[in-house]
Amino acid sequence: MKKKLSDGTSVHSFQTLLSEMSTIVCNDARVPAVPEIPSFTIITTPNEVQRKALELVRLKQLSKRRQK
Question: What is the reported pTM?
């Protein structure tokens, strides 16, 4: 039986959360047919678990800044 949070989502270990987060990637892209267009960055869209984890990290960072 998998453990669930109060919102019904599965609980992750640190290892499974890292594995989940590792699928977010940052790609540098360019259009070879139009060389005058500069390269640009594409970041994959986080899924719901990734979004929640990133939001918690941001909240923690804000909390640390306020404590200083």
Answer: 0.68
